[in-house]
Structures are given as structure tokens and as C-alpha cells.
Amino acid sequence: MSLTRHEIREKAFQALFALNANPDADENQLFQQLLNPDEAAEIEIPAYLSTLVTGVREHQAELDAQIQPYLSRTWSLDRLAKTDLIVLRIAFFELKYVDAVPAKVAVNEAIELTKAFSDDRSRKFVSGVLGKAVKNESI
């Protein structure tokens, strides 16, 4: 089973969303469930999936601190929809830690994730936050 980077980002989003609800879940078992719902046999986890999920989890506090300045005064991280926050964390992680992913690609992929897992308001919100962050070049 060969996944595109886009499909891997979708699986990373799903894994992070599930881990947000159950932080003690076993990552590897979760990956197997997401990648192989029929449980025919264990399959190899794409390295980039592990990179994204583990990286976002390990750097979550730092990523949240980077996201916060781009929220308007009336918004805080705990008020954001979980889907939007997870998409932003993935994007900020890629922008800061994954040199092989150009900023334009990270932003576009975040918008695509928002289209897939949220609504148009969220897409505009995520696009605005990332646009400001990239323009500011603080990440």
C-alpha cells in the first residue's frame, strides 16, 4: 500500500484527532487501524506518517505557542475547533521542521485538510492564520 503525501497527511490528521480524544492510545495500533481497517495483516507504517504524528505530539506546546499570536484577541487555542487546531499544528510543524516541504505546499495541504474535515468558515480561518504566519516568516 503506497500512500501519497496528501493521503498521509489525512491519516496523520485522523490519528492526531483520535489521540487528542485518547492521549494514551497506542500510536502503532492506531496507525494499523487507520491504514488497514480490515486487519488482514500488519502493514508497514509510512515513515512520514510517524514523523508528522510524533513530531506534532512532541512539539505541541511549542506549536501552540507559535499559533497563538496569529489568533485574534478574542480567540484562544482552547476556543478553536479541534479540527482547526490539529490542521494548524500539522501545518506549523511542517513549516518549521520539515525542510523538504515548501511553505506553499504546507499551506495548501492544510487548506485541503480543512476542506476534507471541516467547513468553509474553518478553511478561511486556517488560510488566514497560515497566510499571516508565512508572511511574517516567524516559522
TrEMBL record:
GO terms for biological process: DNA-templated transcription termination; transcription antitermination. GO terms for molecular function: RNA binding. InterPro entries: NusB-like_sf (IPR035926), NusB_fam (IPR011605), NusB_RsmB_TIM44 (IPR006027). The keyword Flavoprotein does not apply. SUPFAM superfamilies: NusB-like (SSF48013). One of its GO terms (cellular component) is cytosol. The keyword Transcription regulation applies. Coiled coil: none annotated. Signal peptide: none annotated. Residues 7-134 form the NusB/RsmB/TIM44 domain. Keywords: RNA-binding, Transcription, Transcription antitermination, Transcription regulation. Belongs to the NusB family. Involved in transcription antitermination. Required for transcription of ribosomal RNA (rRNA) genes. Binds specifically to the boxA antiterminator sequence of the ribosomal RNA (rrn) operons. This is Transcription antitermination protein NusB.
